[in-house]
Design brief:
Its main location: membrane. The protein is built from 10 helices and 5 strands, in the order ααααααααααβββββ. It has about 270 residues and is of the alpha+beta class. It folds into 2 domains: about 130 residues; about 120 residues, SH3 type barrels, CATH 2.30.30. Strands 4-3-2-1-5 form a 5-stranded antiparallel β-sheet. Strand 2 and strand 3 form a beta hairpin. The longest helix has 29 residues.
Length: about 270
């Protein structure tokens, strides 16, 4: 949980008011509990209410309501019965066994907490397109400090390949056709991202094909992957190196692309 800011509470007056009321209600109830001494589990309920109140403050101020919304509602659902039982018990026995002033403070604080928590459930449990949902919908905190990678994830790119694509676009005045095709046709799971990036990356000097390999089997390139090369059994191709499961290769007719390493042996 990061980027905690009180300014987020100011954006939603209802959340700000209820958060302040919850804290004030707890303080009033705590004062009453201290005067009443130990009262049938009152201290456990009191500590639980403090944790819920402070926890909601942190979630609201960090802008992570969408991530923790269900957990918040679960805690509230267990809190309301505890508060109701305490309020009912104190009201029922106030006349005979319990001092009136501390009991009134205790009950008043818990009634404030109950009112706030019912409001929070109504707001958090409503879709943001509804009236109550809009009252409590807060701007979500960014999950990452790398907007390019977030955008890449939305488009389905692997982060490494997408950053490589951005670098290519910044160095080229014309878009690379292979990169455009790759955007239209996502990478196969068996294709090496590093190999594709290496092919699309403009080199600072001529690429040297230093080794020759011979095809052990015939292979037809995938129609969805324009970077793959087709070849016949026994055909000899030149490769740059043997890194990864896919190698950058050049055929005798000058065609350049990638080939699966398990189809070849050293020539």
């Amino acid at each position: 949980m990061s980027n905690i800011s009180f300014a987020r509470l100011k954006q939603k007056p209802l959340i700000l008011i209820t958060s302040i009321l919850a804290l004030c209600g707890w303080i009033v109830a705590f004062g009453g509990a201290c005067m009443l001494k130990v009262l049938n589990g009152a201290w456990w309920v009191m500590i639980y209410q403090l944790c819920i109140t402070l926890g909601h403050w942190l979630v609201f101020m960090s802008g992570t309501v969408p991530q923790y919304r269900m957990a918040m509602m679960a805690f509230l659902a267990s809190s309301i019965p505890l508060l109701t039982i305490q309020v009912d018990y104190v009201i029922q026995y106030t006349k005979s066994n319990i001092p009136k002033i501390p009991a009134t403070a205790y009950v008043s604080g818990y009634i404030i907490l109950l009112t706030v928590q019912y409001t929070w459930i109504l707001v958090l449990g409503s879709d943001k397109s509804t009236f109550f949902g809009r009252l409590g919908h807060m701007e979500q905190a960014p999950l990452s400090h790398h907007p390019h990678q977030e955008h890449a994830a939305q488009l389905g790119f692997e982060p490494e390949f997408y950053s490589e694509k951005l670098n290519n676009e910044s160095r080229q005045s014309q878009p690379n056709s292979a990169a455009l095709n790759r955007a239209l046709y996502p990478l196969n799971s068996t294709t090496s991202v590093n190999t594709i990036a290496a092919i699309q990356k403009p080199s600072l000097g001529p690429i040297e094909y230093t080794e020759k390999v011979q095809a052990l089997h015939a292979y037809n390139a995938s129609a969805q992957d324009p970077n793959e090369l087709s070849f016949e059994k026994g055909e000899i191709l030149e490769i740059v190196d043997r890194k990864g499961n896919w190698w950058q290769a050049r055929k005798s007719n000058g065609a350049i692309g990638i080939i699966p390493s398990n189809y070849f042996a050293q020539h």
